[in-house]
Specification:
Layout: H1 2-23, H2 26-62
């Protein structure tokens, strides 16, 4: 659990820093750092759904990727 929390902190810090440097705005940096993980979570959900439907089955038929 600690690893997950520290990774979340690193992710937030990187997202905030990049957005702040690009925009020059603390508000924009903060908003992006808060919104981006939520959007990524939704994207990950749909990626998993697509992977389970298409990617996993195709990989199982062709063997392991090297």
């Amino acid at each position: 659990m600690y690893k997950t929390l520290t990774f979340a902190l690193v992710h937030f810090t990187v997202a905030f820093s990049v957005a702040w440097m690009i925009s020059g705005s603390l508000l924009v940096g903060g908003l992006i750092a808060l919104v981006e993980p939520m959007v990524n979570t939704v994207a990950y959900f749909f990626h998993e759904q697509a992977w389970n439907r298409f990617g996993k089955a195709k990989l199982d038929k062709t063997g392991p990727a090297v």
